[in-house]
Amino acid sequence: MTELTESGSVAVAPLPLAAPTALLEKRGVRRALFVCVVLLALIPAANLVFPESSPLHLSSYAVALTGKFMCYAIAALALDLVWGYTGILSLGHGLFFALGGYAEGMYLMRAIGHDGVYQSDLPDFMVFLDWKAYPWYWSFTDHFLYAWFLVLVVPAALAFVFGFFAFRSRIKGVYFSIITQALTFAAMLLFFRNNTGFGGNNGFTDFKRILGFTITAPSTKAALYWVTLAVLVGAVLVARAIARSKLGRVLTAIRDAESRLMFVGYDPLWFKLFIWTFSAMLCSIAGALYVPQVGIINPGEMSPANSIEMVIWVATGGRGTLIGPLIGAFSVNWLKTFFTSVFPEFWLYLLGAIFVLVTLFLPQGILGIWQQWLKHRQQRAMIRSASERAA
Q: What is the C-alpha to C-alpha distance for residues 63 and 54, in angstroms, rounded to an integer?
């Protein structure tokens, strides 16, 4: 629970969810994470170096699938910062993920050049819909750096404006969650329209190049994979720095005792607004890295179901832990990949069952099991030590 001293400083006692950075401070955990990062980094190398006949060879599909999971892990980490640490449950992070994907997709569509079906300066979907020129908001999107400027700025601006009015009005709890879900649903309906200039129902696909390199080449896929891994590691380090700082303690105070925080003179508005905007940007970066590896972006990424899945990733791994959302994103999506290929009709039932079971029996997620085991082992060690001293 978060406690506030009379001087106005914020002190954090052991959290009911999980200690925010305690796991990352354990030497064994950091070693395990380092090993995981090294193993993940070797996956593209196993695809490029070893021939298909070798037992050490990994397919291009495995590289792309793991890269996609890492993008999901970045998005889960972004959601954990606002939900696990600040107590703001968002059901609209799929919108920020998709906006980043569309911004990157605009560049990738421009990079196709005359290699499309119609061999036109315009993307195939614009030719098919009888567009004569690019709309104004497509200007300069043939430049990679400008596209990434849009990746960062557009979701951040939307999150800032939306968050400012929502937080200033003190909308919180289930009402805030419903509004975020309504926002992403409205955006999905907008992007489904053909006259918006974003490909309608089909979205963007059939990408050819990125920065002049063939996007389907194994070396390009490996480079995209390693960039995604580097961003994931960087995002974890930045999130850890935030959690350990005074800002992080204020955020957990907002989650645990917002009224007491206001009583000692803090204004939660700007703290909420900062972490909400930062989380939107991080989620957008995940979407931008996702699109060139998967090869498609369409309005379906904005569906409320996708945002709810993000919540399930965080809850399954353990919210408020930084590590838990990564574990949840990888484990749930691995199950999704397996079930949708073997028992596709049962996946939604399994997803609902996971959420119900985690809520009822694992409120601290997968990491909660390990933490309870560690706590039990420490208690047994203390009892044994006390018995030895008594003897």
A: 16
Please provide the DSSP assignment of 175-200 as one string.
HHHHHHHHHHHHHHHHHHSGGGSS-T
Which pair of structure tokens corresponds to residue 343?
Answer: 């028992």
Label residue 328 by pLDDT band (50, 70, 90). Answer: very high
Confidence (pTM): 0.91
Asked whether residue 2 carries a pLDDT value surpassing 50, the answer given is no
* Cα distances (Å, whole numbers) of residue 323 to 70, 81, 138, 227, 309: 13, 12, 38, 20, 17
Distance between CA 70 and CA 12 in Å, rounded? Answer: 31
DSSP 209: E
Q: What is the residue-wise DSSP string for 99-129? A: HHHHHHHHHHHHHTTT-STT--SS-HHHHHT
- Listed residue (37, 97, 52, 61) closest to 226, CA to CA: 37
Name the DSSP class of 134.
Answer: -
CA–CA distance, 51 with 38 (Å, rounded to integer): 21
In this structure, is the dihedral angle defined by the CA atoms of residues 334, 336, 338 and 341, taken in order, positive or negative? negative
Domain range summary for the chain, segments of one domain joined by +: 17-22+62-390
Query: Rounded CA gap, 31 and 36, in Å?
Result: 9
Rg over CA atoms, the chain: 23
Residues 6+ apart with CB under 8 A from 62: 43, 47
- Please name which of 62, 75, 134 lies closest in space to residue 101, comparing C-alpha atoms: 75
With left for phi above 0 and alpha for psi between -120 and 50, is residue 343 left, alpha or beta? Answer: beta
pLDDT (tens digit, 9 = 90+) per residue, 68-95? 999 999 999 999 999 999 999 999 999 9
